[in-house]
Design brief:
Number of strands: 13
Helix content: 40-55%
Structural class: alpha+beta
Oligomer: single chain
């Protein structure tokens, strides 16, 4: 096992050691190094108290000092350094009411969520694995540290994190851990929509986006949002839910949850659109708004879903119409989106469409008001009254040009204002 620690993180460990404190890399970065993955963050745990960490390093930020976390700045990068701690009660089902600092690394690792995230490492001691994380990595399973019901009762977000990690790593969820997820799914009411969305997005962007079906199979879906649950669930013996709120009892996943081919690029709006493509566009928008996604992503998903079945070709006119309705990069995403989700015969048609798109772009055909040969001022000077009529006239002229690009001359368009 080759562990490569970035020089700034190594320097932090060394300085803490030189000042008489223990210090280890901990959590996800250790897991990822073992798996040969590039860690996204380098978290450090230490026996030093926050004030002692601040004495050792010149540039620090109090990012979570009440919970023992100080960010140490190394150049332009920040590294979170957290004191060994024991968490108190979790009254809100998400955050500890208090923390107690401890000199024991084992006590600190004991409070963590899953065994694969409860390992620590430094160059002097090597790997510290108190709870079988290495064995679980080898077996490819996600398993809670200690009693699963306790871990999920402490922080309900861990319920979704288990599924997300299984998708990112391609692991299965250990039996008792999976059973606890099902039992404690209602605790998801304690988790904000923003945090739920962040976990679902990471899941969808993973190498195994189809694991999102577990959100339905474990009974989590009603607590994501009502519409999220309704679109892919039905009651035994019945059709899809109507608008009223339903009890969980009797509801089962509707096995029309669409597959999400990994060929769909791992881009947020592409993967969300692939997952929601069986919905009506307005349903998809409501789900994404409920989950507090940004407006740009929501609009892109709406467009991809709305245009997924539009006839692109065989003529250039219909292609130019579609191109005129969205930004060039989103139109390219639409082509790729449909290519990834289509049968072989349809992919041949889409390949032909892509060739026609190239011809349209090389010819410089007008497909937006930006490149129309006349603008609002030209229309007004020609006698059209300022206001709504100007916009309607420009839209009509653009439609004429989309049908026949050669019409895009000032002379021709001004002759056809009415």
């Amino acid at each position: 096992m080759e562990i490569k620690i970035p020089a700034p993180a190594e320097e932090i460990l060394t300085k803490l050691n030189e000042n008489g404190y223990e210090a280890y890399l901990v959590g996800g970065c250790v897991r990822d190094m073992i798996l040969g993955r590039e860690p996204g963050d380098w978290d450090i745990t230490t026996s030093a108290l926050p004030e002692q960490v601040k004495q050792v390093f010149r540039r620090t930020v109090d990012t979570g000092i009440q919970h023992g976390t100080v960010t140490v700045m190394m150049g332009d990068e920040g590294y979170e350094v957290t004191t060994y701690r024991i968490d108190g009660e979790y009254a809100d089902g998400r955050h500890p009411d208090s923390v107690t600092f401890t000199p024991s690394l084992t006590e600190d690792l004991k409070r963590r969520d899953f065994t694969v995230n409860a390992m620590a490492y430094n160059g002097n001691t090597g790997l510290v694995d108190e709870f079988g994380g290495m064995e679980d990595l080898g077996r490819g399973i996600i398993r809670c540290v200690g009693e699963p019901m306790d871990r999920f009762s402490e922080d309900a977000l861990r319920i979704l994190r288990a599924i997300r990690f299984s998708a990112q790593l391609g692991f299965t969820i250990e039996g008792r851990t999976y059973g606890a997820i099902r039992a404690i799914a209602p605790n998801m009411v304690h988790v904000s929509k923003e945090r739920i969305q962040a976990e679902l997005t990471k899941l969808l962007l993973s190498p195994h986006p189809g694991h999102i079906s577990m959100v339905y199979e474990t009974g989590i879906s009603p607590y994501v949002s009502e519409t999220f649950h309704q679109v892919y669930c039905r009651k035994d013996g019945g059709g899809l839910e109507d608008g009223q709120k339903q009890e969980r009892a009797g509801w089962k996943p509707f096995f029309g949850i669409p597959s999400i081919p990994v060929q769909v690029p791992p881009v947020r709006h592409m993967r969300w659109a692939a997952f929601l493509r069986k919905c009506m566009p307005d349903e998809a928008v409501k789900i994404l708004k409920d989950l507090k996604l940004d407006n740009d992503t929501i609009n892109r998903v709406r467009t991809l879903i709305s245009w997924q079945d539009y006839g692109l070709g065989p003529d250039k006119y219909s292609i130019r119409i579609a191109m005129s309705r969205m930004e060039p990069d989103l139109f390219d995403d639409l082509l790729e989106f449909r290519m990834c989700l289509s049968e072989a015969g349809a992919r041949q048609d889409l390949a032909h469409t892509a060739l026609l798109v190239d011809e349209i772009r090389r010819a410089g055909d007008c497909i937006s008001l930006k490149t129309l040969a006349v603008g609002g001022n030209d229309i007004i000077k020609a006698g059209i009254r300022p206001g709504r009529e100007v916009g309607l006239t420009l839209a009509r002229l653009l439609e004429m040009v989309l049908e026949e690009p050669a019409r895009n001359t000032k002379e021709y368009l001004l002759q056809h204002l009415v």
